[in-house]
Amino acid sequence: MEVRTIVLRVDGTNCDEETVISFKKAGSTVDLAHVNELIRKEKSLEDYQVLCIPGGFTYGDDIAAGKIFAILLKYKLSKDIKKFVEEGKLVIGICNGFQVLVKTGLLPALEGIMKKQEATLAFNDCGYFQDRWIYLKHENKGKCVFTKGIKDIIHIPVNHAEGKFVADRDVIRRLEKNDQVVFKYVDPDGNYAGFPWTPNGSMDNIAGICNPEGNVFGLMPHPEKFIHKWTHPYWTRLPGSSDVGDGFAIFKNAVEFAKKKL
Amino acid sequence: MAWIVEVGYKKEATDPVGFLTKKEIEDLGIEGVKDVRTINTYIIDGDISEDDVKKICEELLSDSQIQHFGYSDENVKKLITEHGFPEAWLVEVTFKPGVTDAVGLSTLNAIEIMGIDGVRNVSTGEKYLIFGDVSEEDVEKICKRILANELIQNYSYRKIGGK
After folding, report:
1. A62 and B103 in contact (C-beta within 8 Å)?
2. Which of A47, A107, A178, B101 has the fewest CB atoms within 10 Å, counting from its CB?
3. Before A221, cis peptide (omega within 30)?
């Protein structure tokens, strides 16, 4: 069965092209659409199995990163998106997309889909934009559809100024209990560590989470920037013979799942 | 009429811009600054009800997890009491007339998306609370060198709190 993915673009999105390429490489048909095409009903979410909100600086990060895009989705498309998630279809938000998903209430969605904002992504503790490669440890025990069978520790780039995951202690406890924590920042040996290994000061080193059902996933680092091994800063010295980068598994998993189950 | 909305960080949340500003002041060679906190201000000009303003503040302008909002100088007073310093310098930086306020325009756009009519204009500015023992001369220097770009921004400062 053909898997159809929609990558949503809006003023200031800038990682849309490489996200499209990643999904295509994983075997999906991909439409890059401006959000207004959905609002004007020229395109419909019903035709797709995967929805992706890519990275960027939507609306210039004005007020707070992802805030205005989140308001737009909440006020104009909430019914369609709710239905999309309820049907078990896949939603992924990368970087700015993660900020949007958290601020619309699609993540962590402990109290229900788009009910309220339960967490946030605040300004990095160091005060600066962080743009470099970091290590992530896969913490999920199997709930998240996107990361099944992924390597234990992956090397991947981050580029953000507002990526510090903040929530009530109680919310974080529930995330851990529900198996909703997907990635945490670690040092090269896999130990939890502070700055610079955790680039933003996230609570409990959290880098990515999923919803209670595992079909909505958001993360701050950029898997779409490491789908070919030769985009790695020292790829000629990487062990193993695989041609794909660590981030590719996330797209592959999504497309494979959609092919079988949706 | 115009509503003056202020959004500041909760006491337990970090204020990264304030933290960096404090560092920059120290790099300038000015001593005695104990803490710097920032507050974003939005002046919402239009015929809208208090309920709508509250909705805009809660859903759009502030992040309930880390920030609180208030009107007029409420937030400034709150920060001063929270911090327990007897007084502080309050610096206000705003755009000069005629300079495009990009964040203001985005905010206006977002308010329209929320379906709230009647807002004519939104303009933004920043407030900085400088706690500690700093002379007026030094505050002038801080404004000129760090906080304001005089080509496009105006600044003003005054001492608040005190006995």
Report:
1. yes
2. A47
3. no
pLDDT, tens digit, 9 for 90 and up, residues A160-199: 999 999 999 999 999 999 999 999 999 999 999 998 999 9
pLDDT string in tens for chain A (262-residue length)? 799 999 999 999 999 999 999 999 999 999 999 999 999 999 999 999 999 999 999 999 999 999 999 999 999 999 999 999 999 999 999 999 999 999 999 999 999 999 999 999 999 998 889 999 999 999 999 999 999 999 999 999 999 999 999 999 999 999 999 999 999 999 999 999 998 999 999 999 999 999 999 999 999 999 999 999 999 999 998 888 788 999 999 999 999 999 998 8
Pairwise CB contact (< 8 Å): A124 & B19:
no
Return the number of other C-beta atoms located less than 10 Å from residue A220's C-beta: 32
Q: CATH assignment of A4-261, given 3.40.50.880, 3.40.390.10, 3.50.50.60, 3.40.50.920?
A: 3.40.50.880
- Enclosing H/E stretch for B139: helix B136-142
- Which residues does chain B have within 8 Å of residue A60's beta carbon, measured at their own beta carbons? 102-103, 106
Its pTM stands at: 0.93
Residue B163's pLDDT is: 46
Instruction: Decide if A62 and B103 are in contact by the 8 Å CB cutoff.
Output: yes
| CATH code for the domain in which residue B53 is found | 3.30.1280.10
Answer for the pair A4, A50: CB distance below 8 angstroms, yes or no: yes
Neighboring chain A residues of B116 at a CB cutoff of 8 Å: none
The string of DSSP codes covering chain A is ---EEEEEE-TTB-SHHHHHHHHHHTT-EEEEEEHHHHHTTSS-GGG-SEEEE--B-GGGG-SSTTHHHHHHHHHHSHHHHHHHHHTT-EEEEETHHHHHHHHHT-SS-TTSTTS---EEEEPPTTSS-EEEEEEEEE--SS--GGGTT--SEEEEEEEESS-EEEE-HHHHHHHHHTT-EEEEEE-TTS-B--TTTSSS--GGGEEEEE-TTS-EEEESS-GGG-SBGGGSTTGGG-SS---B-TTHHHHHHHHHHHHHH-
Burial code of B18-38, b = ≥16 C-beta within 10 A, e = fewer? bbbbbeebeeeebeebebbbb
CB-based contact A75 B20, cutoff 8 Å? no
Q: Do the Cβ atoms of B128 and B36 come closer than 8 Å?
A: yes
